[in-house]
Specification:
The complex is a heterodimer.
Chain A: H1 8-20, H2 26-37, H3 43-56, E1 59-67, E2 73-80, H4 82-101
Antiparallel strand pairs in A: 1-2
Helix pairs in contact in A: 1-3, 2-3
Chain B: H1 5-14, H2 17-38, H3 40-53, H4 57-60, H5 75-91, H6 93-121, E1 133-141, E2 145-148, H7 154-162, E3 166-175, E4 178-184, E5 187-193, E6 197-200, H8 202-207, E7 212-214, E8 226-230, H9 231-238, E9 247-250, E10 254-262, E11 275-278, H10 282-285, H11 287-290, E12 302-308, H12 314-328, E13 335-342, H13 343-346, H14 358-387, H15 391-399, H16 404-441, H17 453-479, H18 483-488, H19 499-532, E14 542-546, H20 551-563, E15 567-573, E16 584-585, E17 588-589, E18 600-602, H21 609-613, E19 617-620, E20 632-635, H22 636-641, E21 654-657, E22 661-669, E23 683-687, E24 695-700, H23 705-719, E25 728-729, H24 730-735, H25 739-773, H26 775-783, H27 788-822, H28 833-860, H29 863-868
Parallel strand pairs in B: 6-11, 8-10, 18-23, 20-22
Antiparallel strand pairs in B: 1-2, 1-12, 1-13, 3-6, 3-12, 4-5, 4-9, 7-10, 8-11, 9-10, 14-24, 14-25, 15-24, 16-18, 17-21, 19-22, 20-23, 21-22
Helix pairs in contact in B: 1-3, 2-3, 5-16, 6-14, 6-16, 6-25, 14-17, 14-19, 14-25, 16-17, 19-25, 19-27, 19-28, 20-23, 25-28, 27-28
The chains are: A alpha+beta, B alpha+beta.
Amino acid sequence: MKRVYLGEFEEIVLLAVAVMEGQAYGVAITHEILHQTGRDVRLNQVHSALQRLEEKGMVKSEMGEPTAERGGRRKRLFSVTAFGQRTLHEIQEVRASFWSRLANPLKLSV
Amino acid sequence: MKPPRLADRFLQFFCAPHLLEEVQGDLHEEFEYQVERVGVRRARWRYWRDVLGFFQPRYIKRKPSQYPQTYLFSPIMIRNYFKIALRSLQRNKVYTSINILGLSLGMTCGLLIFLLVKYHLSFDNFHAHSDRIYRIVTEQHRDNISYVAAVPSPLGKAFRNDYTFAEKVGRICTFDDMPITIKGKKGLNKFKESQGVAFTETEYFDIFNFPLSVGNFQNALREPNTGIITERIAQKYFGNTNPINQIFRVDNKLDIRVTGILKNLPSNSDQKTEIFISYPTLKSYNDWLGSDDAWGGIHSAMQCFVRLRPRVLPSEVEKVFPAYVKKFRPTSKNVHHYKLQLLNDVHFNAQYGGAMNKQTLWILSLIGLFLIITACVNFINLATAQALNRSKEVGVRKVLGSLRGQLFWQFIAQTGLIAAIAGGIALGLAVLALPYVNQWFATEISLNLLTDWRLVAFIPALILIVTFFAGSYPGLILAGFQPIVALKGKLSQQNIGGFNTRRALIIVQFSISQVLIIGMIVIARQIYYAQKADLGFNKDAIMLIPIASTPQQAKTVKAQLQHLAGVEKVSLCYSAPASNSYWQTAPRYDNHSEEEAFRTSVRAADNDYLPTFDLKLVAGRNLYPSDTVKEFLVNETFAKKLNLASPSDLLGKNLRVNGNMTGPIVGVVKDFHDHSFHEDINAVCIPSASDFYNNYAIKISTANVPTTMAAIEKIWTKMHPEQIYEYTFLDEHIASFYETEALMLKLIQLFSLIAVFIGCLGLYGLISFMATQKTKEIGIRKVLGSNIAQILWIFGKEFVRLIIVSFLIAAPIAWWFMNQWLQDFKFHITIQPWIFVVTIAITLLVATLTVIYEATKAALVNPVKSLKSE
């Protein structure tokens, strides 16, 4: 199978979508990332990442219900596809295998 | 709390519709959140930042539509646009011709002004390294500062020898109005060269790019009594014979051998002289100017050009000049400050005799722009008025699937057609008018579409700009019609753009016209005043003829002239009382040890000067006949400058001027204008000094003028067989002081005529539009018993109001401008209220004539007809 690569930021966004379980949309993801990582991401970056992920087939989306705080506009809700889940797992495994072969992790801090 | 509206609008503008909902929703939600967190002000900033973050291709790109698109530019439709455009133009002949006429007039002016400005900006732009070429000029600091574009003749040589700032230093000494004679097979050929001859150093031609076609600069202009001439002059003097080594005689003094032929000089150069004589010859023509120690004064003929080395600053060079003043003119009250004037500035700096003021060019461009704008405004007015007539067509097109864009482009195509026709006519008119423009401005502009790429680019650009400027607004209105309303014929003026827009446009047009009219009246009055006001002497029926012989011969001629029947008086004089010539010198009064701080004009003349010009004495007596300086007359200003209470205090006091002229003051003349009205009256002294007489001033009786003039010519020609007879009348000479103003008057007359004309076309359009609008109203009024006059007043009220408003705008602007203009004159009229009254009266009259036909036609319509249709 052709391996699909994820950028570091895309991976974070994909993880955030996975964590939020069907309640993931632009602003919410932005805030989630801010709380978890402390990095000040901007909306347009998150939107771009979501679009790219959808093009790669790792997330799918549908329009949600309109809410008052959005001026009656609907939100686009994202959820992770099977392919997305598999990719996340693979990444996790690759990392784990590297970490396990590291003799003395403390050396890294030098 | 709402996010910034402008940012939101911007987002809606650029963001692709299928993304807009989620993006905008997220942005709003984020905004709400941020308001809670950081407050409104910073949230708004963040909102802007976020919106701008989305401004990238990913969000701008539209989703491809699943339906087929209508092509905006399909060739068949474009052909159709032009066909319909032609048809609708043909149907409305009056409308079309008004538009084409207005636009082509405006464009003609624009085109001609463009040519003129381009011509002047191109002056002397063909010399290599022109950014390093300078002319040395002089500021003369006395009690006031005067500016001359000349320097003492030895300065150039000294500067060349003493300093290394300049690559080349070239002196050129130009004398205008030179008689040239050539020995031909059948006696003498006489020529008068108004551009004169120039005594020129070879280095001058190293600086400037005037190439030789025959000969070379290694040996041209080196030896005394040699010279070079242009091809044109060679053809004129020697025809087809080889001009090299031919001899011509200059001013009956110098025999000059031709050693080289220059290519004809380009017309866009300030170098107009076409005969150049070697500089060493100058010494035998004018001993003083040719010598190396002529530091005492400046002859305006003597110019000096330098080309500096690269990276030499002019300010550096100017610092070394004061040393010369200190060395050679240590005691003079007239302190010279030599400055460098960049070549680019020479043509435009009026202070140093530049031919064309940059400001004038700006004003001209502005007027050209205004005329084009008025023409476009006109078009907009008429087109929006006409739009109603096309509502059915627009409705049908829209029902059949036209888009707004297509309708807009259709109208632009029609406008483009009109603009292109107008542009073609304008080009033709410009070709026809160009000879007159050249004559007025003394220019040699040519209109050549084959060689002049700027012009070739300008015309289509002008047409394009006019098309869009004039066509966009009506096009948008036309394209914006709602098909249902348009097809039902229920469109009214509310639908086609505010009536007020059109009113405002008319007001703009009439303001421009009225500013121009007021300007025209003020200039005309000032010129009239300058020519008719009492100058302090009588200028009627006085001929001026140049003296071209020795003082003795001049006296013989004078005696002969006095015996002629029609001649009343003859005076030999340096110049007429009012004259362009500047012979000014610092006087030394009453044996004072120092020169006075003021200067006095010298008007050398014999004892017949006062009676010939009818000058009045206020004290003392006239001069006794004399050939040399024995006595002086002075004017009243002379006494004022010396702070003397009474003119008679001057009498008997000794006066010394010009270094060596000295004698007692015997009489005081009533003040007269010794220059144009641009200047104050100077102190003047009148000595007898026959060496300095240039003119016979002849007062002739008004009876039998042609016989008298013929007799005068006969006597003169007999005495000066080698010269060409010329004469001027004094009043014409004085009128020539105001040539610039007279030209300006002609221009402003023309421009105001065109502006008024175009304005009237616009008014006509407005009124005919009103007439169709008010058909029903007029019908009802008539049924209810209105008479014709009352109905006419409906229209009258409208345009009188417009003109009065535009007058209120125009009057202060014109007053301010013309007041500024009058400041150029030391003696000028005041701007009186009647000028404004006349202006508004003229405008009202012209406007009435414009609208009366259309209004009367509307008022006379039978109400049965106008009310019947619904």
